[in-house]
Amino acid sequence: MHTISLKRILIYIVLLVTSFALLVGFTVNIVSQVAQYEKSLHEQSLSYARIVAGNAASSLVFNDNATEKQRLNSLQNTDFIQHVHVYKLDETSNELTFFSSYNKQGLAPIPARFSKLDRLTSPQIQDNYIEVSQPVVLDSEVIGYVYLRGSLEQARLFMWRSIGIAAVVFVLTLLLCWLVTLRLRKTIVTPLDSVVDVISQVARDKNYSLRLAPSQLVEFDMMAHAFNTMLDRVQQHISRQRRAEEEASQLNTELERQVTQRTQALKESNSELLKTLEQLHQYQGQLVESEKMASLGDMVAGIAHEVNTPIGLSVTASTLLQDKLTVMQEKFDEKRISTSEFERFLSDCDENLQIIYRNLGRAADLVTSFKQVAVDQSSEVDRDIHIPSFMNDVLISVKPRRLDPEKFPIRISCPDNLTVRAKAGPLNQVLINLIVNSMIHAFDGYDHGQIDISFSMQNDSELEMVYADNGKGVPSDISRKIFDPFVTTKRGSGGSGLGLHLVYNLVTQVLGGNIHFFSEEKNGVEFIVRFPVTLVSNA
Questions:
Q1: Helix intervals (H) in 206-217
Q2: Measured distance CA(424)–CA(511) in Å, rounded
Q3: Neighbour count for residue 515 (Cβ, 10 Å)
Q4: What region holds the Histidine kinase domain (predicted)?
Q5: Cβ neighbourhood burial of 101 (10 Å; 0-12, 13-18, 19+)
């Protein structure tokens, strides 16, 4: 860190403050004097113009140009006046004509100033001169005008002379301030040097018995008193510390003895704690296994519940059919079958076979769903997918499961030429499951609804699909575990709870992406799916 001497700071501050005060004072004084001088020039020019106008009245009346010329030449002794014009007002045409003029020796004549006479009734400063005009009046009637131009050279010389005097005074004042500051610096710095010496000795030798001497300056005397008080307290603290060290030395001996005793006790306690920790690990393992078994039990219970119902109905229907077949066989053997009985038997057989067929089909669908949960990742290869055409195929494939397309439209949003290379089968299964899930769950009890599906590329290497419906949404207790197996709001009504679990496995394991779910009850759902692809075309 850069340091600077207090002596130098003191000189800098005094000179800086003095310089600023002098500059402000001289500037205000010079500006005021110059303004006052210019004001006197205004009055002087106006006085000359009025005198010339008063003298020119008789010359204009008698048209005595020679007399007026001689009178104007008498202005040669006036350094201030540079040019004077006398204009005559023609009584017939009421126009001004040049009557007479005066030009200071060495200066070229200037053009007439007819157009400026009205604006110069009060003196005006222009560049290096001042100009003014006055009417020539006779018996309250204007018979001509006088134009006068004066030099500002005297004003500028006055200003520079004032600046020169101010500069000399400024330098002399700064020199005097510097000498006074040197004297003042000794008064302040001398006691400060003694303070620094004492503090350095205390820091170097740790001799806290040293004290600062009183000073004639109040501030330094107060600092010396405070510093001496601090040294007294430091000495007292050191004395207390030494006594405390002696007491601590005695306590250390006692503590070593106690530590030896307690170390043995700690060893015994550690041994017991290790045994307890080992038992806790065993209990923890048992708890983990219990949780696994509980999860497995839930899964088995879900599978058993879902598969047991259609198979049980099939068994019941087949048993009933077997009973009817046995009765019919007995009647056939006894040759007492009537036509109506045979027709009723055929009808019952058809009804029972339909029941068996429907329920066995339901069981087969459930088994297929269970198999799809563990879909083989290597069974699908990448291919080029034109997203708009692909979505048309998906909508055709779900047409039998869709509700009324006019009341429940599906809107697709994606670039017309969006083509990517990815696994088409898993993506097809994801979309079908999401659409069917909306038809079954989201719009249950609704007379209209809408599904929006949009596709967009992210960084040319990732496809983002946003799927949303405006259905009834998902309760908060279900949304937290929406992707878990056998989680459904249609338990006992045809829902297996495997659809979204299959979607999650397909997105994360087969497509290598991620899926996010957002929903509020009665506000629909939104799925955001992102997975890596190779962009083929995107116009």
A1: none
A2: 10
A3: 20
A4: 302-535
A5: middle
Find the angle CA(37)-CA(42)-CA(44) to the nearest 5 degrees: 90
DSSP letter at 378 equals G
Helix (H, G, I), strand (E, B) or coil at 518: strand
Torsion of CA 150, 152, 153, 157, to 10 degrees: 140
With H, G, I as helix, E, B as strand and everything else as coil, classify residue 187: helix
Helix (H) or strand (E) holding 538: none
DSSP string across 133-167: EEEEEETTEEEEEEEEEEE-HHHHHHHHHHHHHHH
Residues 6+ apart with CB under 8 A from 152: 41, 125, 128, 129, 130
Q: Please state the separation of Cα 362 from the chain's center in Å.
A: 57
CB burial readout 398-423, b (16+ within 10 A) else e: beeebbeeeebebebebeeebbbebb
Give the list of residues 6+ apart from residue 384 with CB closer than 8 angstroms, or none: 419, 420, 421, 536
Sign of CA dihedral 22, 24, 27, 31: negative
DSSP 277: H
Question: Are 170 and 187 spatial neighbours (Cβ–Cβ below 8 Å)?
Answer: no
Token pair of 273 as six digits: 């704690």
Give Cα 436 distance to the centre of its chain: 43
CB 166 within 8 A of CB 30: yes
In sequence order, the 6+-apart residues with CB closer than 8 A to the CB of 530 are 458, 462, 463, 464, 465, 513, 514, 515
Q: List the pLDDT tens digit at each of the 539 positions of the chain.
A: 556 666 677 777 877 888 888 888 888 887 887 788 778 888 888 888 888 888 888 888 888 888 888 888 888 888 788 889 998 888 777 888 888 888 888 888 888 888 888 888 888 888 788 899 989 888 888 889 999 988 888 777 878 888 888 888 888 888 888 887 777 766 666 667 777 777 787 777 777 777 777 766 677 678 777 877 887 888 788 888 888 888 888 888 888 888 888 888 888 888 888 888 788 667 644 543 443 344 344 444 545 555 677 787 777 878 887 888 888 888 888 877 788 878 888 888 888 788 887 778 777 765 654 554 334 334 467 889 999 999 988 888 788 778 888 999 999 999 999 999 999 888 988 999 899 889 888 898 899 999 999 999 988 889 999 999 999 988 888 888 888 877 776 655 555 567 788 889 889 988 999 999 999 888 899 999 999 999 987 75
β-partners of residue 130 are 125, 150
